[in-house]
User: Fold this.
Amino acid sequence: MQSQNNYPPNNFQKIILALFPLLLIVFILFFKNSIFESTLQLRNFGNLSVDPEIAFTNGKPTYLEFYAEWCEICKEMAPEVTELKKDFEDKVNFVFLNVDNPKWDKFIKQFKVNGIPQINMIDSNLNLQATLTGLQEEKTLKDIINYLIEK
Assistant:
């Protein structure tokens, strides 16, 4: 025979049930910047981007990244890429193109984007030096950027 507990919840249980959502909301509000920082950085990429037409004509090497706001790897890499941009933006064009924007279809086809993030490193003579797809370490990106600057 099964015994079932049909007793109404006691006051302690009611308090815990009422406090849990409140604590969850406080936690999210307190940590929202760290939880959502990479997503916000990724959404801001379009604003940080040099127009590709300018980047391909101003004589500087170009870091060209194809990304999407829903891409988890793109979100993971966003803080590192943002730091790279801060460190090298005076020497390198940083172009960020969202693959979900039909405006960039011409470049998606031109650079044969078949996975994201896709990063194309282009030297100052418009020669494609490297194409990287997927998760990349900051050191790898920094090394290629330094190579482009020195070349």
In short: Residues 40-150 form a domain with the Glutaredoxin fold (CATH 3.40.30.10). The longest helix spans residues 11-48. The beta strands are 62-67, 93-98, 118-122, 128-133.
